Amino acid sequence: MSAVHRAPAPLKLGVGLALILGLAALPAERAWWGLWALPLLVLVAFLARLSIVGLLRRLALAVPFLLGVVSLAWFRPHGLEIALGLLIKASLSLFTLQILASTTPISDIVRTLRRMHVPEVLCDAIALLARYSTVLADEALRMRRARAGRTLRASRVHWWRVLGNSVGLLFVRTVSRAERIQVAMRSRGGA
Fold first, then answer.
1. Rounded (5°) CA angle 177-99-59
2. Do 61 and 97 fall into the same domain?
3. Residue ending a domain, choose from 49, 78, 113
4. Which domain holds residue 7?
5. Average pLDDT along the chain
């Protein structure tokens, strides 16, 4: 276990939030100033013995969402400059959150957020998301196996359509499971 892992959760959360808020406060035309944080983040990841390739792979999963946000800036004056600024700030913020989540147990993060008087509903949502993410991953794996067993190799367009349907079905199943969990929690006196 590295020194970064052993550091107190409030310190890591405070530094991470300060960096993210600092990046958010930068004007879009000065967002490249935020790149000074990249070597620092890479150094922290190296000290924590985290795989940079693994962090970048997880960051790549967020690219569609980043591009969606960035594409909205194209319709404003100086759209390219604003879009690049948003891309830099959002990517660095996500990289910071990945390092925080990789080096700090979710239970410590939630406990620290509760001490900071973050609304209880948000803390509960984060805790449930962490707890049930493995259930969601198992459900996705079962659906992938079932889809592979039923479908033949087809064109790329067909594959994307099937993938879109699977993601939609996974979303519907997740919402249904969340509703059942909420009903069970209420029946036991929960919020």
1. 70
2. yes
3. 113
4. 3-113
5. 85
